[in-house]
Amino acid sequence: MLFQWGMRRQKERMNDGVQQEGADHSGEAADVLEEPLSPELAVNIDIIRRATGESSDIVIRRFSLGQETQMKAAIVFVDGLVDEKNVYEFLLLPLLTASFPLPLEEKERIQWIEKKLAAVGGIEQVSDWKRLFFNLFSGATILLLDGAALAISASTKGGQYRSIEEPQTQIAIRGPREGFTESLRTNTALIRRRIKNPNLWLETMQIGTVTQTDVAIMYVKGIANDDIVTEVKKRLARIDIDGVLESGYIEQLIEDQTFTTFPTVYHTERPDVVAANLLEGRVAILVEGTPFVLVAPALFIQFFQVGEDYYARFDIATALRFLRVLIFFISLVAPAIYIAATTFHQEMIPTQLVIAIAAQRESVPFPAFVEALAMEVTFEVLREAGVRLPRAVGQAVSIVGALVIGQAAVEAGFVSSAMVIVVSVTAIASFATPSFAIAISARLIRFGLMFLAAILGFYGIMMGLLIMVIHLCSLRSFGVPYMSPLAPLIPSNTGDTLFRVPTWMFRERPRLINQKNIVRQSGGQKPQPPAPSRQEKGDES
Amino acid sequence: MKRPLAVFLPFAVCVCLLSGCWSKKELTDLAFVIAVGLDKTEDGKYLASFQVVNPGNVAGAVQRGGGAAGVPVSIYTSTGDSLVEASRKASEKVSRLLYYAHTNLVVVGEEVAREGMDGVFDALERNQQFRTTARLVIARGHSAKDTLSVLTPIDKISANKIIKTLEFSELAWGQTMNADVWWAIRSLASPGRNPVVTGVVIEGNPKEGKRQKNVQSSVPDARVTLKGLALFKHARLIGWADGPTARGIMWVLDRIHQTNLTIPWGGKREAIGYRIVRAKTNVEADVKNGQPSILVHIKAEGDISEARVPINLADTGVLFRLEKQFERGVKQEVAKAIETAQRERTDVFGFGEAVHRADPRLWKKIEKEWHDRYFPELDVTVTADLYIRRTGLRNRPYIEE
C-alpha cells in the first residue's frame, strides 16, 4: 500500500510540470527560477504565484506607479513576516502619490524609485529569482516594475516575536533577567549592548538548503583566537543540511567528537554569559529561531560555572563551585555506591547502618541492583513525563510519582526506604547540576556505573570512573583540550576552576583559547582601606 | 595493527570481568555475627556461640504486617576442635552465611581463659573479615554462651550493650578496660607485658535472661554487668582484680580519663569527693648496677565533686592539704595494684617494656625470667601530682560546723 502510494506520488510529481521537475533535496523548485527575471510584470507575477503554489500568505498588490504615467507595478510580501504599517506608509504611499516625471531611462527610473523608498531602508536591486525569494521569505517587500527585468527589494522585517523574557533554563538570583529570544537580531543586540566595541564582529550566513536559516557568528576581534574563528567558519561552511531548526543541529554538526556523552559545545540562554565568553576569546554562534546560543570552544569546567559565580563574592562562589562538583559526583555514583556497598563491601558500612539497611531489605524481593535499577528507571520515567506533559497534568504526575516511589513502594516492601533516599538524593543532585547538558551525561553514565558496580563492586566503579576520566582527557573542543586548564595543567588559569579567585586576581584569559592577547586586567587592583591622609598625619605630629 | 588489537581485546575484557570483587552477596544472604563467644565442652572441644543479628527485629526497622516483635538476636552454637571448624560447622544451623566483618565483641569463657587462650586469636587475626578492633571480654562465672544469651533493654543487641558499657565505663569510672582483640594479641606477643581483660558477669538468673520477658521489665531478671579485670599470665587467666585495685592497674596503664575519688576528712570516712577530669601517667624505667627500677608518675587535674563535712574550700591551704590527701589515695590504689600483680607474678603494666626501652641489652638477658624472677621483686616508686582546679558551683558546703 505504502509503496503504491509512493509510486502515485512520484507520478504526480512528474506530471506536475515545471515547478517540481528536477527537484533535489534542497527543494529548489524549477528551471524557471534559474532564469533571470522577465521584463514583463504579468509573467513575473505568474512565476511567483506558481513557484509558491499560490500560497495564501503571499500578498501580491498591483498598482500604477505615479499619477500621470500609470506605470504598472506590483509589490509582493509575505503576510506576517513584514511590518505592514511600514509597507503601506513608507513604501506604497510614496510611490502612489509621487508624480512620475516622463520620459526616463530605465536606469534612472530605478534610481528615482530607490530614492523615493529611502525611508524604508535595506534597498537592494534583485535580478535573479533565488535572491528574490530569499529576500521575500526573510521579510522583505519586493517591488516589481513592468518593463524592468529586475526587482527592488526593501527590508520591511517585522511580525510577531516573543519578547525578551527571563531565561527559563539558567535562572540567576543575582544577575541580569534578560534572556535570548527566537529573533536573531534581538539576540545580537542583547550582546552588543553589553560589549560596546567596534571589535565585536558579527558574520552572518545562511545554513540549510531548504530553510535558509540565518546563522551568525560573533567574536571579539583581537581577543578571539583567529585559528578558532577560522575553524568555526570552516566547520559551518562544511554543513550541508536541508534545515536548521535549532542550534542543536549546528552543535551536532560542528562538535569535535560525536561518540561521547559529554557536550563539547556550550549553549546558553543568557546574554551575560555569552558576553563573558566572548571576552574570554570564545566564539558565539547564534541561530535564528532559537534562544539557545552556542559557545565554542567549551571546557569541562565551564559546565560547572554560572554567571553568578562572578557576580557573587569569591568565597561563596568557590564554596558553590565545590558543591557543584560534589553534586555532579553524587548524581554520577550515588546508586552505584549503594549497590557496591550493600552487595560486595558490607564491611565498609558502619555496623548500625548495615543492620538498619539489612532490616529494610529483609522484605525486598529483588537483588540490590535490580531494586536500584527499577527505582532509577521509574524516576527517569516520572521525570520525562513531568517534562513533556502539559503543566496542569504534570502536577498530577508528580503527586502520583511521589506516592508510588516514596510511600507505596516502601510500604509494599518492594523497595527499601534506603533505596528511596539514594534515588531521591541522586535526583536532586542531578537537578542541582548547573548545566543541563552535563547533567544528562551524568544520567547516562550513572546507569553504566550501576551495572559495573553490580558485577564488580567498587573495583568496577573505579574502573568506570577511570575510563570516564581518560575519555574526558582525550576530548577536544575546537582543538582545545576539554579538561584544560586542569589537564594539561595551566597554573595561571586554574584560578577559575574549582576555586574562583577574587576578581582582582583574574589577570589572564584562558591561555589555550587565546594564546596571544591573554592579559585581561592590570595587577595591583586589590581593594584596600584608604591610607590615612596627610593632614591627619600632620595633626598627629 | 588490527591483529594485535583483536588478540589483546579479549584479554582486556577478561581482566576487567574476571578480577575484582567476585564475592557478591546480598544483604539478605548474610548473617551478621555481632559477637562470638568461646567456651569448652566437657570433652575438651571448643564450643563457639555466635550472636547473630535478626535485622527485622532491631529497633529502627520498619515494622510490617503487625507480627509480634521477635528477639533482636539469636544465638547459634557449634562445637569443633578449632574456632574455624566450629564456625564452618555452624552453617548446618544458620540459614545464611556467617559474616564476621561486623563482629564487634569476643567473649571468652573463664574456663577457656584459665586453660589458656593463646590458640584463640590466631584464627581471628588471620581471617580477612574479622577485625581485631573487636572488643574482648572474659565471661566471669558463667559461660560465654549464657552471657551472650541475655537480652538487654535500650541497646537491643546485647553485644552493643556490652561494648558501649565498656567504652563509657572506662571513660567515666575507670575500673574496667575497653580492651580489644588487638590489645590482647599485642600484650601476648610482648615478653614485657601480660594482658588484662575486663570481666563480664550476669547478675540475676541467666535462664530468664534469654526470654523476651527480660526486656519487658524495668528491672530485668538478668543483667550483664562489667566486673573487674582478669589478670593473665601469658595466655592463662590467673586471677581477678576488682574495685580500687583494678583502678590502680588502669592508673598505671594510663587509661584513666575521668573517675571519682573519695577521701576521709575531719574524722569522717569518704568525706570529700574528687572528680578527675584529666589524667596522665608516665612510666619510666631506671637501671642502676644492672638492677632495674620503675618510676610511675601520675599527674591529674580535677574538681571537688562532693563535700560532706564542713570545710572551707576558699582557703588555698585547705586545698593544698586536700591535694596531698588525694595524692595519697591514688598512690595507695596503685601500690595495691602493683602488689597484687607482683604476688601473682605477672607484669600486666608493661614495666618490662619500659625496662626494654631503658636498657635493651639488660632486657635481652632477663627477658626470659622477667615475670617470675625480676618483676615480683621490682622496686616501683609511685609519685602523684593532683591538682584541684575548681570546687564546683559553690565553695562552702551547706553543712555548718
Automatic annotation (TrEMBL), chain A:
Q: Which UniProt keywords apply?
A: Membrane, Transmembrane, Transmembrane helix
Q: Where is this region: Disordered?
A: 1-28, 517-541
Q: Where are the transmembrane segments?
A: 283-302, 322-341, 416-440, 447-472
Q: Where on the tree of life does the source sit, at the highest rank? A: Bacteria
Q: Does the keyword Repeat apply?
A: no
Fetch the InterPro entries from UniProt: Spore_Ger (IPR004995), UPF0353/GerABKA_families (IPR050768)
**Which family is this sequence assigned to?**
Belongs to the GerABKA family.
Q: What is this protein called?
A: Spore germination protein B1
Automatic annotation (TrEMBL), chain B:
- What keywords are annotated for this sequence in UniProt? Germination, Lipoprotein, Membrane, Palmitate, Signal
Instruction: Reply yes or no: does the keyword Lipoprotein apply.
Output: yes
- Keyword Signal assigned to the entry: answer is yes
Q: InterPro entries, from UniProt? A: GerAC_N, Spore_GerAC-like, Spore_GerAC-like_C, Spore_GerAC_C_sf
Q: How does it sit in the membrane?
A: Lipid-anchor
The record's similarity note reads: Belongs to the GerABKC lipoprotein family.
Could you tell me what this protein is called?
A: Ger(X)C family spore germination protein
Natural source organism: Geobacillus icigianus
